[in-house]
Design a protein that fits this description.
The complex is a heterodimer. By secondary structure, chain A is α/β, with parallel strands linked by helices. Chain A folds into two domains: 142 residues, Rossmann fold, CATH 3.40.50.300; 73 residues, no CATH class. Helices cover 28% and strands 26% of the residues of chain A. A six-stranded mixed sheet of chain A has the order 5-6-7-3-8-9, with helices on both faces. In chain A, strands 2-1-4 form a three-stranded antiparallel sheet, with helices on one face. Chain A has a two-stranded antiparallel ribbon with strand order 10-11. In chain A, α2 crosses α3. Chain A is globular and about 60 Å long. By secondary structure, chain B is mainly alpha-helical. Chain B has one domain: ABC transporter involved in vitamin B12 uptake, BtuC, CATH 1.10.3470.10. Chain B contains 13 helices and two strands; from the N terminus they run αααααααααααααββ. Chain B has a two-stranded antiparallel sheet with strand order 1-2. In chain B, α6 packs across α9. Chain B starts with 6 loop residues before the first helix and ends with a strand. Classes of the chains: A alpha/beta, B mainly alpha. At the A-B interface, β5, α2 and α4 of A face α7, α8 and α12 of B.
Chain lengths: 262, 295
């Protein structure tokens, strides 16, 4: 088995004529927690689409376990960016989690006890066992994210892709969810990529960080990437990285540049 | 015909008539098919699509009457073509409202022209629009049964992927589910289900069997399989009691089916909700000790 789960060499992503970002080189190993940070439209979700095999690289190579990404890869658990479930949707959580395991199977077969137990175990592992029989439509944002996480984990993937799970969460729920994701990464030895806007709440947990901005990608340990030099090179404008005594970082000079990250 | 206090005797009296037997046979098949298909229609928020099929089917049925074949074949042809066209328009149901509206308005106009060209009885148009279950022949029953079985077998075959794709489209797509196939298969199933259901309630009242029972059932259960069973039961009750009442009154069957269906909805929506609200208790204590109160 290769030491790296995900490797990219001179990877470029885009749509037809437009390149979103290029020259990305990175390697992620088993059990790493990686934050993907960058402004809207920088191509963070595009990276996920490449890994999911929903989109092909425009150039370069991307490998998962030494093979190109393919759609429907059972090694990947995916939580897309979703804001709400329609409050009319009166379907119990357990059903959604079970579908994460058996939704691909054809034929009508009342869900087996084995699948039921696996779904309950997944719900328990995200601290949502008591929500198993609650309706999806009545859950709060934080509860929904736990259910989605259980849905992704139930098939026991090696890689977890979480697209902005923290949006719409208040600080308290944000911290809770990050602790949960971190526990999942450590206990299951899963490689997790989490898209977020703000790096600070993630810093205590991260192994690596990937900045996507200005058509470029910078990847490495937080201490390597979160420096004035590295981010200045990435954004192409002077950027200052300041640190407070608690280890939080403030990145100055980037905000005004958000508009033209094409 | 007189109504006795003895419902069983009334039923036997009604059963004596062959057209009522046919009506019950076709009605039962249709209620089962519409109740099941309706769940996915409600889950995928495709009610407007179901309605569109029926109106596209109307043009087909009117065209069939015009050239002298049974309306059911025109209905099937029209709604299946409509289903393929709508499936081809795109995958996301939510963005199709405008296109569907445009197409169905045109087809309704086309149907009106066909009816106008047809010099026979205007009752043909009336029965397509509002249903005419009392004129169902034994061959119609057989046809309904065949299509009903095809729909049930097809839904059983794609049940889990369809449920997954309906509930969580993005994850299902990432998991490699054939979304275009599922979307198209679903459209065709609804098209055929609508076509056979139109025999009872007509083009304009299709919701009473296709949407209302499933929407009502959603208030009563949270597991899809349970919702589907309840939906079928409601559709059966509405159909059977509608036929029974209509037999002893001078009023149309469709009126009773739609009214019973609607009354069930109101009862459940506003009555049941008061007894046992579907929301989980307002305050919950999480496993990690966090206490949460719903807004």
């Amino acid at each position: 088995m290769p030491s790296n789960l995900i490797t990219a060499d001179n990877l470029a992503a885009g749509y037809r004529e437009k390149t979103v970002w290029r020259d990305a080189n990175f390697a992620f190993g088993r059990g790493e927690f990686i934050a993907v940070i960058g402004p809207n439209g920088a191509g963070k979700t595009t990276l996920f689409r490449l890994l999911l095999g929903l989109q092909r690289p425009t150039s370069g190579s991307l490998k998962i376990f030494d093979a190109p990404p393919k759609r429907g890869n059972p090694q990947i658990g995916y939580v897309p960016q979703r804001h709400v479930i329609d409050s009319d949707t009166n379907v119990e959580c357990l059903e959604l989690v079970r579908l994460g395991l058996s939704g691909k199977k054809w034929g009508f077969n009342p869900f087996s006890k084995k699948e039921n137990d696996a779904a309950m175990a997944a719900l328990e592992s995200v601290g949502a066992a008591e929500l198993a029989h609650s309706s999806l439509g009545v859950l709060s944002g934080g509860e929904l994210q736990r259910i989605f996480l259980a849905e992704a984990l139930v098939s026991e993937p090696d890689i977890l892709l979480l697209d902005e799970p923290l949006s719409n969460l208040d600080l308290r729920r944000e911290t809770d969810l990050l602790h949960l994701v971190n526990d999942v990464v450590r206990s299951r030895d899963v490689t997790a990529l989490l898209i977020a806007h703000n790096i600070n709440p993630l810093l205590p947990h991260l192994d690596k960080v990937m900045y996507v901005a200005n058509g470029k990608v910078a990847t490495g340990k937080p201490s390597e990437v979160l420096t004035s030099e590295s981010l200045t090179a990435l954004y192409g404008v002077q950027v200052e990285v300041l640190r407070d005594p608690h280890g939080n970082v403030a990145i100055i000079g980037v905000e005004e540049h958000h508009g033209d990250m094409k | 015909m007189t109504v006795n206090v003895n419902l069983f005797a009334d039923f036997l009296q009604m059963w004596h008539y062959q057209f009522m037997q046919h009506a019950f046979e076709a009605g039962t098949i249709i209620a089962i098919v519409a109740g099941i298909t309706g769940y996915f229609v409600v889950l995928r928020r495709s009610a407007f699509v179901a309605h569109a099929f029926s109106e596209i089917g109307f043009a087909g049925a009117a065209g069939a009457v015009l050239i002298g074949i049974a309306p059911i074949f025109g209905l099937l042809m029209g709604s299946i073509l409509g289903g393929l066209a709508i499936a081809a328009l795109g995958r996301r149901v939510t963005n199709r409202d405008t296109q569907i509206g445009i197409v169905l308005a045109f087809t309704l106009g086309l149907g009106l022209l066909f009816i106008n060209l047809y010099t026979g009885y205007a009752t043909e148009a009336y029965s397509i629009l509002f249903g005419e279950i009392l004129g169902i022949s034994s061959s119609n029953v057989l046809l309904t049964l065949s299509f009903g079985l095809v729909i049930l077998i097809a839904i059983a075959a794609i049940y889990r992927p369809l449920l997954f794709a309906s509930l969580d489209e993005e994850v299902a797509e990432a998991k490699g589910m054939p979304m275009v196939f599922l979307g198209t298969a679903f459209m065709l199933l609804v098209a055929v289900a609508v076509s056979i259901s139109v025999q009872i309630v007509g083009v304009l009242l299709i919701f009473s069997l296709m949407v209302t029972p499933a929407a009502t059932a959603q208030y009563l259960a949270k597991r899809p399989q349970q919702v589907i069973i309840i939906s079928v039961i409601i559709a059966l009750i509405a159909t059977w009691s509608g036929l029974f009442i209509a037999f002893y009154t001078p009023y149309p069957v469709s009126f009773f089916i739609t009214t019973i269906s609607f009354a069930t909805y109101l009862l459940v929506r506003f009555g049941y909700g008061r007894i046992r609200p579907i929301k989980v208790p307002a305050t919950r204590i999480h496993a990690n000790g966090e206490i949460k109160t719903d807004a």
